[in-house]
Amino acid sequence: MKVTETNINGLLVIEPNIFEDSRGHFFESYNSNEFRKLGILTSFVQDNQSFSHKGVLRGLHFQSPPHQQVKLMKVVNGSIMDVAVDLRKNSKTYGEYYSVMLSNENKTMLYIPSGFAHGFVTLEYNTVVQYKCSNYYNKLSEGCILWDDKDINIDWGVDNPTISDKDKVGLNFKNFKTPF
After folding, report:
1. Distance between CA atoms of 84 and 73, rounded to whole angstroms?
2. Mean per-residue pLDDT, 132-158
3. Residue 53 falls in the annotated catalytic set
4. Which of 7, 29, 33, 99 is the most exposed place for a label (fewest CB within 10 A)?
5. Which numeric CATH code is attached to 43-175?
6. Active site annotation includes 136
7. Given the residues 97, 98, 111, 131, the one annotated as active site
8. Residue 180 and residue 165: Cα distance in Å, rounded?
9. DSSP per-residue codes, 94-153
């Protein structure tokens, strides 16, 4: 397994070891012992899966303390542009984002520590995203930053994405008071 640190502390790109032969391929997308050897000590308690059409944008979501979540993102089918925004007030990269393409072809994963807003846009039809969470979802702790916030200025790489009504009314970053 190859782990690459990003320009944002704690945010990791993970590439599993892929074993291919004439039948197809096999890889471990998660092994707690291997993650612990890499210094990733997170215990995951919930797995989520979403199915989306091409051009669907979900985010930028977060769970406030004490229900904050660490996430391990991967794509089972299709591809996404995955984005994490640093909301940790004492971080050198507060308000900055990192983006990476995750797909069923590259099998790359993104490890997102707590204290981040997260979102993704689907780049293909029939995209299936799976992710592990370190804490259970809590409706009263959910939050959303506007996906197209001018201060964060994310380049999503798509025009006119399909967005939920909830995501259309997220918070402006300049008025956001971080709980992290």
Report:
1. 11
2. 97
3. no
4. 33
5. 2.60.120.10
6. no
7. 131
8. 26
9. TT-EEEEEEETTT--EEEE-SSEEEEEEE-STTEEEEEEESS---GGGEEEB-TT-TTT-
